[in-house]
Amino acid sequence: MGLNSVDFLTLVPQFPTQNSKMKIRQFSKQGGGQVATAMVALARWGIKTKYIGKVGGDELGSFSLDSIRQEGVDVSSVTLEPEATNQFAIILVDGISGERTILWDRDERLMYREGELWKEEVCSGKILHLDGHDIHAAIQCSRWAKEEGIPTVIDIDKVEPLTGELIKEIDFVITSSRFPSRYIGISDQEKAFLELQKHTNGFLCTTLGEEGAMALVDGQIVHSRGFPIKAVDTTGAGDVFHAGFIYGLLQNWEVEKIMKFANAAAALKCLGLGGRKGIPTLKEINKFLLD
């Protein structure tokens, strides 16, 4: 349960300066959003998935929903908000580094209101994946999952007043590289990461971009190195990492193997433009890990 988006991806030779003109290298319109993209990745890897979220009643909403449905993801629990504009993003991708800058907009009517979510739909799977953007809905869903004994995974980057309440409910807290320092208020990444463990009872992991990821295992920080690649676009790398992590959980792998697989999936995604088109196949990931 979480975000979906329509991404307008623009690859440029380098990040533009103010009051300049620049010919773009490549353009692509794709489905995006943290949870929606993770569900698409898992569906491509043979996992049965359901996406729960809201789409707007405009052309963007139709495009976003179709982009998820066509991947074989169950969209029967998606809610249409007729008067709302679907979430979208204009993403500038730097042709030198592959790093992206996201300009986004989200209609407030895409937030769930009281009574619009159903426990039996939220708790219909073996694992519940969330993000922290519609925070009231995420808290409700995580509590329902806990009541039913369903493990929860979260992709969290945003800090707001109820974030602390949310992460207390989560079994696998997987944050962006910036989140621990933002949440704790300590600039030192590892110190902030260790301090963050005091705020959740769940397994804690942080993605580190090209450096890979780190997790707390038996009170010790364990690093899982990244894979050296020439990135075309980093958009969606975190979403695919989360999909890889969930895939590993479903296979009952050890933590180190899960993180290595997730790192490989995220790295390979960066070889293509966009969060969805760049998702590697299982065959590509396994070959990459063997090479």
What's the quick description here?
The chain has helices at residues 34-44, 59-69, 119-122, 135-147, 163-167, 179-184, 189-196, 237-250, 255-269, 282-290, and strands spanning 5-12, 26-32, 54-56, 79-81, 88-94, 100-105, 128-131, 152-156, 172-175, 203-207, 212-217, 220-225. The protein is α/β, with parallel strands linked by helices and 291 residues long.
Task: Assign the CATH superfamily.
Answer: Ribokinase
Instruction: Please give the number of β-strands.
Output: 12
What is the end-to-end distance?
35 Å
- Uncertain segments are none
Mean pLDDT: 96
Supply Rg: 18 Å
Order of helices and strands: EEHEHEEEHEHEHEHHEEEHHH
Overall tally of structural domains: 1
Determine the number of helices (DSSP H or I, runs of at least 4 residues): 10
CATH architecture assignment name: 3-Layer(aba) Sandwich
> Strands of the largest sheet, in order across it?
7-8-9-10-11-12
Proportion of helical residues: 25-40%
Q: What's the CATH C level?
A: Alpha Beta
